Amino acid sequence: MKKLSRIIALVCMSTLLLLSLSGCSSSQKDSANSNEQEKLKIGIVQIVEHPSLNTIRESFIAELAKEGYKDGENITIDYQNAQNEQTNLKTICQKFANNKYDLIVAIATPSAQAAVGETKDIPIVFSACTDPVGSGLVSSMEKPGKNVTGTSDAVSAEKIMELAKRITPDIKTVGALYNSGETNSQAVVEDLKKYAKKNGLTVVEGTVTNSSEVQQVASSLAGKVDAIFSPIDNTIASAMPVVTQVANKAKVPVYVGADSMVKDGGLATYGINYPVLGQETAKMAVEILKGKKPGDIAVKTMSDMDIYINQDTAKAIGVTIPGDVLKEASQIFAK
Ligand code: TRP
To answer: How many domains does the chain have?
Structure first.
């Protein structure tokens, strides 16, 4: 009798144990699975950390959260910065592609070119690419096709030069300072040359291949020209403090392609609003996360342009910004 009740007790206990074990393991597995399934993986690749690109990334992430896609909740954001190295870009994009991320967000042209080179099926949204067609990212702005779309920060060299002439009317020679390897800069410099030809200006080119050459090339240009023009170039943007030092010493105005380059010491620009561009990029990303094909979404260009001025630089080089230009400016940087 004793033996029988012991056997019954044992059977009961082991059944209970089995039940609880299997119950526990299956519920754990379920929740792990659903977590994995719910969280979409988004890889953000950025060529280098400079103020403008950081602003774009931050406003992109903020807008995504506003639209209900929050890092750590329903999405996982893997942000990688290539420290201005082409080989790093390739490694980063290969990792995103091999891990089958749900979306790649590429900030600036070199990052977008690397992403496009690594995957033909994962959706890619690029941000702030000046010349998406000329840079080989898409074949058409209206109907990109394939797995790629995004936003462009195209600016007008002509508009920037017209502003330059309002501020410093005696310009005869302009030095084009840029990285010859950045296709985003090439497009704007071509426009600058067209403008120069029409308006009787001479363009002197000062090209670099990396940021360590900027000081020497900027110094040599500053000795030869009435003004320096630098397009929306990632290499020059990351070396703006050096450019400013050289140009201010030579008392040469530097006209640039982006507001952050004015903040960092350039004299003026007529440029776009980058926080808005970051938000627009996020809206495209959301459409894609909800199932739309990138190839069916037209590349977006920003049409609102504003004047940005640096008064400290104006003072340093002895230039007075005309009152009407100051009145039109959307932002005036001064200490
Ligand atoms: N337009 C640049 C590109 O196509 C990227 C960029 C965005 C940038 N904002 C900038 C470059 C400001 C220099 C300064 O790669």
So the answer is: 2
